[in-house]
Write a structure and sequence with these properties.
2 domains, five-stranded parallel beta sheet, alpha/beta, 5 strands, Rossmann fold, 222 residues
Length: 222
């Protein structure tokens, strides 16, 4: 096989592999959207039936928040779990009215890791985040909003998470909101989430929730 034919064959193989990868990524995104839509519909129906009220402490976010048994973690606090599996910043923004209408006493926000995992552009993530914080302050000004950092993930995403957390921390500071750093207590020496605190490198183990509870307790139960 001459050099030109070899290069042509190699190029075609690379293009074929690229098409296959693109195809499967699209399938994964479609599957994610379908599952998320089902989860979202179920969650919204439940939230409508059990609305937030003044005095409630709301935990707002994605599956990491949804997985927390907050009534057991804070048994003497009127908590409401508003975590939805698969949610991104845009999803929280769309359903924010349910939180704002209830005028809760406190709201703990943790969102953004699914944006990272699904490749949402940085600028879009930050625009959505700014809109969430602005709307909360405008629509329910008596609510104390606590901005939690994005948790660490696999080591290859370390720099991206750190960069977003810096921007999120600055948003909180300029708005006079409390920023709660979860990243440093959860990150390991290898720049990924500590193995004992997660069962899959993303979602939290029981020990992970215990640490989270410990970090939030001064703000939930001052």
């Amino acid at each position: 096989m001459d050099t030109a034919l070899f290069i042509l064959s190699l190029t075609l193989n690379v293009l074929f592999v690229g098409v296959i990868i693109t195809f499967w990524l699209q399938r994964v995104r479609i599957f994610h959207r379908i599952i998320h839509q089902i989860d979202n519909q179920a969650a919204m129906a439940f939230f409508d039936a059990y609305p937030i009220g003044p005095g409630d402490v709301v935990f707002l976010g994605d599956s990491i928040t949804a997985g927390g048994h907050w009534t057991e973690m804070f048994p003497n606090v009127p908590v409401k779990n508003r975590g939805v599996s698969g949610d991104r910043t845009a999803d929280v923004l769309r359903r924010l009215w349910q939180i704002a209408d209830g005028r809760p006493a406190k709201a703990f926000l943790l969102i953004g890791t699914n944006d990272i995992g699904l490749g949402t552009p940085r600028d879009e993530i930050l625009r959505n985040y700014e809109a969430i914080l602005d709307q909360l302050q405008e629509q329910t000004p008596t609510t104390c909003v606590y901005v939690q950092s994005i948790l660490p993930r696999e080591a290859k995403l370390f720099d991206e998470v750190v960069d977003l957390n810096k921007a999120i921390a600055e948003m909180a500071r300029t708005r006079g909101l409390t920023y709660v750093d979860l990243f440093l207590p959860f990150v390991g020496d290898d720049n990924s989430i500590q193995e004992a605190l997660s069962y899959d490198g993303l979602h939290l183990s029981g020990q992970g929730y215990q640490l989270w509870q410990l970090l939030l307790e001064p703000y939930v139960c001052p």
